[in-house]
Amino acid sequence: MRTIENIGAASKASGVSAKMIRHYEDIGLLPKVARSFGNYRVYSANDIHVLRFIRRARDLGFSIEEIRELLGLWRNKSRSSAAVKKIAGKHIADLRVKIAELESMVQTLEHLTRNCHGDHRPDCPILDDLSR
Asked: Which three-class secondary structure state does DSSP give residue 78?
């Protein structure tokens, strides 16, 4: 099995920053990796695969705890896909709520900017709204 001798190379191979690799190891999302005689981390192909999994899950907006669950399910070859689908379905629902909240913010800001004269006068409905 191919190994990567340092965190920089693991970062490049996985697309995860060295800082986040250390963090994921510290919180147990990535199991403690092997160490060389010089106490450098040594990453296996499987470690890189796990890091890519984590990165993709983060790109899709999953929380650390959701990723922890998904990793557990991914490693468990006897699991049902229903458990994975349930996590993804809940995440979709959470994203839809966030999207609705963001759309509401956009509408409010659009309304405020339409009503702001944007001229030399000090009157500003945007600041008035923020100061309420």
From this structure: coil
The rounded distance, in Å, linking the Cα atoms of 98 and 86 is: 19
Name residue, tokens 């199991």.
31
> Residue 1 corresponds to which tokens in the numbers above?
């099995």
Q: What Å distances lie between residue 129 and 27, 75, 111, 121, CA to CA?
A: 41, 50, 11, 17
- pLDDT tops 70 at residue 17: yes
What does the alpha-carbon distance between residue 61 and residue 77 come to, in Å, rounded to a whole number? 24
pLDDT digits (tens, 9 = 90+) for 32-91: 888 888 888 899 999 999 999 999 999 999 999 999 999 999 999 999 999 999 999 999
Residue 1 CA, chain-centre distance (Å), reads: 28
Structure tokens at 41: 């981390």
Residues 6+ apart with CB under 8 A from 17: 11
Sequence-separated (6 or more) residues with CB below 8 Å from residue 39: none
> What is the per-residue pLDDT for 1?
52
Rg (CA), the chain: 23
Looking at residue 47, what is its pLDDT?
Answer: 94
